[in-house]
Give the backbone structure.
Amino acid sequence: MMPTGNLARMVVANATRSPKHFVLSAFGIVVGIAAFSFFLAGTLGVSDVLLGKVFPLDQVEVIAPHTSIAGKNLSQKLTADTVAEIKARPEVAEALPRMTLQFPAVGYGKFEGQDIRFEVGGFTDGIPDVHVADDPKLVDVFKDWGNDPANNGPACVPGQPKNCPDPAWQYCDNVDKVCRKRVPVIISPTVLELYNTQVADSHGLPHIGAMEQFIAERGRERMHFWMGLGSTMMAGSNVDIDPTKHRDIGAILVGVSPKARRVGLTIPIGYVERWNRTFVGDKAASEYSSIIVTLRHKDRLATFAQWLEDGPKLKLEDQLGSSFATAIFVIRWVLLGIAFVIVIISAINIAHNFFMQVSERRREIGVLRAVGATRADVMAIILGESAVIGVVSGVLGVLLGFLASLLVDWGLALAPDFPFKPQTLFRFTWWNIAGSLSVSLAFCVLGGLLPARRASRMEPAAALAQN
Amino acid sequence: MTSSVISLKGVTKSYGAGAVRTPVLRGVSLDVAPGELVALVGQSGSGKSTLLNIIGGLDKADDGDITVLGHAFRSTSEQSLARLRNTSIGFVFQAFNLLDHLTCLGNVTLPASFAPITGDVAARGREALDRVGLSQYAERRPSELSGGQKQRVAIARALFGRPKLLLCDEPTGNLDSATGAEVIEFFQKLNSNDGVTLVIVTHERRVSSIAKRVIAMRDGEIVEGEAAAAVAPGADVGGPA
């Protein structure tokens, strides 16, 4: 076998000596690999947006199937035992309860000079504050301040301006007449998107980009509102609340989190437990509306979902996410299949080109054999030439795919805003690039295999006899 | 005869198959001693070029024993045969067979690509070109040379590996008489000064006139006596051994 350095020099010189052949062989592979890397990065990027932001799949919500007879809710109840049972599953990394406010309540206040009112009873969930502990913007503010004297006081006179020492974070309780920490509220990106796309323009309200920036520009006070517990703006409510229990609670919107309930408000679960106990009873304070489950990996979802149905007879709250995951999975393979077909056709084209070249270069191959090349040397030279085309085409293909993705992202940036509009629709990873280069190399070498075999089997005398 | 450079016994070769099978060599036996300059003469189609290719390992015999430079081809691997061509056998062809995409120096040093040759390959290539009087053409392409110059570059390539055996197939066939005479003179010096064994396939009397032995072929066989004289009139035709 010829020395590797000599082989490399000869291969590069041969591969580049005929630009026409090189372009003819490389063109299809460049297009195929560009499509391959573009589709792969595109489906990964879209999957990131859909499954990472819109339908986060490593975090699912478990609910009890709804059952009612004669208007009575007979659904299975989720309790602390259910949480423990789920937490014990090997697929589960964390299980946290979620409790819904089970009595009428209304939110009201002023926003941009306008009076606003919205229903929060049934639309407000409580979650453990540890659930957002990984968010540095929320970890110090999303807490159950409770009735701890350290977090409350001093005494105040309701209705007076600036009647508490820290008006940004405190309000004057109109029953106890003492300053209390405002209840921290978070909303989901969905709510923010709905506000920006459906409400802001139609009501002449400002768009909110980054919530933190909005708060910094306008001040914490603009995020204040009140929660009227026991009140409702729903017509026809059958729930009678003892008027003496009515209470107005100061609240403050502290941020946006994908862990917040998709539509509605989310507050620390301690508040909901206490208020449910006060307004509904002890039972309501021990039953959860759902359990938020963090899986160890997205791939474990199917196993976990099956166990839920077979074991505790529960189900996932949102099947849409897993449906999207399946759809994206199928689309990804269809697109990659198309790219593969392009690459395969290109490999056939390469084989055709190399067959022609081998035929044209019979005499050259004969000379190489006459001066000492073995069959293996000839095979290595032809395969090496196809490998050079593979590597160069792979690099050019990935670059072309990347440029195409920049073009699409540029078009995306110019497009009007839409919910969950990402900065990019693509995710190029090292394994995407390495995979594209490998596919290019593999298919080019595959294309060169038969011509190389034919070249290596030529008898030198017959090859030299070519006119 | 273990001291022979070339030893052939009953070598046969046919082309085609079945009814169109055409015998080209019919049991050729031949011994060439070290330092001999042998001319292989005969009509077109007599089998001389095929015999030369078989001696050089460029073609395979159907049957018979072939031993070249101590290598019995029957038991020599394809790699060893390639190595033998690379280091010990030089070829000169009628059509020169230079690679147009390489310079003259690149053509001359081509054998070095297939062997881990130590030392300065380019210097050795220039030395080979110098021997044929073309050192100033090292960086030229073959397409820029005359026929005679091309053949001299081809000879330099054949000499690059410092071969013990030089096989030439009609080396003057494409050259004018003056250039052909220079090439013949070069071969004669190579044989007498360096002791290189040469086997030259030729039609030309002036080539056979410098040969120490002329072997005549007709219809795939070596012929002697009157038959040989008819093949190569005026030549001192010798036998197979």
Q: What stands out?
A: The first helix of chain B runs from residue 48 to 55. Chain B has a mean pLDDT of 88. The interface with chain A takes residues 50, 53, 56, 58-60, 78-79, 82-83, 85-87, 91, 93, 97, 99, 101, 110-116, 157, 161 of chain B (CB under 8 Å).
